[in-house]
Amino acid sequence: MRSRRPHDPDARFDWRQLRRLWGVTRPYRPRLWLGVAASGVAALLGVAFPVIVGDLFNTAFGVQVDGGLGGILQGAEGPAAVSGAAVSGAAVSGAATPAALNQIGLVLLAVFLVQAAFNFVRVYQLGYVGEAVVADLRKQLFGHLLGLSLHFFERRKTGEITSRLTSDIATVQAAVSQAVAQFINQGVSLIGGVVVLFVISPQLTLVMLAILPAVIIATAIFGRRLRRISTAFQDEVAAANANAEEAVVGIRIVQSFTAEPHEAARYGAAIDTAFGSAVRRARVRAFFIPTVILAMFSGIGVVLWYGGQQALAGTLAPGTLITFLLLTVIVAGSIGTFTGLYSQIQEAIGASKRIFELLDTHTDLPEPAQPRAWRDVRGEVRIEGVRFRYGDRGDAWVLDGVDLHAAPGEVVALVGPSGAGKTTLVTLIPRFFDPQEGRVLVDGIDVRELTTRALRSHVGIVPQESLLFSGTIRDNVRYARPGASHEDVVAAAVAANADAFVREFPDGYDTLVGERGVTLSGGQRQRIAIARALLKDPRVLILDEATSSLDSESEALVQSALERLMRGRTTLVIAHRLSTVVGADRIMVLDRGRVVQSGDHRALLASGGLYRDLYETQFRSAHQPA
């Protein structure tokens, strides 16, 4: 998580970020503008409502205002507009007729119906835009994440990434689908209301507007603090989600170590931290919102008192006073809504900033500007003078001047103690990382000159712990080639010694394997992974401890399947059990990032050194009495 500087630029209103967020709506601008227009019309009709109500009130009590329905806006203020008799309760009811009341009532009903229609258009169109923007952002962000290197995922927690895909994007959705509509609606209501108020009574309007500076200052002070706290809260929730994700994924380990209280406490501590930020945010809002409400209602109270004085003096019709009060409430509500919109937009800017930070993260494995074509794939692998280290794990070289050559169809085994660099070496072939020095070639082509898609389409990997995806057995085998027929899937499973156990399940190849393949045994998962690799039919095959975690029976079945898989392919085998690689064409012994020995099994035993030490140690362990 990023540390915050004392003067965090996030505290300022980031117009650049807001413009970038606005740019996401480009494909849906016609719908957006339609929704904005509908919002504006609905707001104007809302401003017309108080005018009609005031006219209805004046008509009901027989108060004559020049111009009928529009008379409130035409010379409504002054002695000439309203007679003293009208205000003092003189018998002026004869001016009111049922027909006039009915006419105004019908106009009011028509305004409500038309406003409802425009509100429907507003809510639907802007809601559509909000959902569409969220869907596009999620797809774009997820697609971008899949293209980043392994180094990125090693530094980020899974829960943090999923939080960006869920909660942050949901925050952006609220801003797009609601804040835009509210901004336009309340903006029109505010401007239209103030204009009508000035026409009715400039003096009253100035009294009402005197509270605006206090509201603006409160918004500026509280809004900046609210932005900082909201950003911290979202970061802390993401961290809590990351902890929960780790515990759920590793639930077997958690339960086997009876670490449930520890994980619950760890998650609880993260949630408590987020709760602390949420409480601070609630406290800021608790000060902010009542402050604005107090200022607005104080203004309304002053307007009511001052307007009442004018009505008693006969300079303002009672209906016109009601119109003014209703418009004042609308204007006050608009100002209050703007303060809430400010905090909502600030939160959306913070969320979008984290989303765009991920979208702006570039892979450290750039694609070549002019990629080489890889035709007539033979599977020759050559590693020349490679030096590699993980920058965030210190300066020590994990690989230090390694050379390797595997001819097409040759089996090369990599052995050595833990931490010797075996797995790191093979991950350079499909270009999961790039070496700092030296180069990796396939069929004489530097892997950096090929697109990663072209390179990896000819490289198959069977790791020690094969990951299966939630879905059916057929889906997992077909993952290597989505267009493969059922017959191809079965053929691959037969070759991988998997068909027999698959057919024992009631649903056969339609059996659900569960998340990460938890419903299958380790040997079954490994054979499904081998079937997947067989269906891919790669020219270069990497076996990384593919049998080390299996029991003897499963190992025999998997080893038999691996022998079929290795036929005719260039294969690099990593193994701790040296008995599994005695038949390799060549064995390379690594120690502390260097190749210290190379040759076949017999030659290495004869020459002594690290290989013979490792072999004899394993041989003695295997033959010790139980």
Summarize the structure.
The chain is α/β, with parallel strands linked by helices and 626 residues long. It is built from 20 helices and ten strands.
Question: What does this entry look like structurally?
Answer:
It is built from 20 helices and ten strands. With 626 residues, it is α/β, with parallel strands linked by helices. The protein has three domains: 15-359, Up-down Bundle (ABC transporter transmembrane region fold), CATH 1.20.1560; 378-458 and 541-626, 3-Layer(aba) Sandwich (Rossmann fold), CATH 3.40.50.300; 466-537, P-loop containing nucleotide triphosphate hydrolases (Rossmann fold, 3-Layer(aba) Sandwich). Helix 7 packs antiparallel against helix 10 (260-312). The chain starts with 14 loop residues before the first helix and ends with a helix. Mean pLDDT is 78; it is low at 1-11 and 66-95.
Write the layout of secondary structure elements.
Elements: H1 15-23, H2 29-60, H3 84-88, H4 98-146, H5 150-155, H6 158-200, H7 202-209, H8 212-249, H9 251-256, H10 260-312, H11 318-359, E1 381-388, E2 399-406, E3 411-415, H12 422-427, E4 437-442, E5 445-446, H13 452-456, E6 459-462, H14 473-478, H15 486-495, H16 499-504, H17 522-536, E7 540-544, H18 552-566, E8 570-574, E9 586-591, E10 594-599, H19 601-607, H20 610-623
Parallel strand pairs: 3-8, 3-9, 6-7, 7-8
Antiparallel strand pairs: 1-2, 1-4, 4-5, 9-10
Helix pairs in contact: 2-4, 2-6, 2-11, 4-6, 6-7, 6-8, 6-11, 7-10, 8-10, 8-11, 10-11, 15-17, 17-18
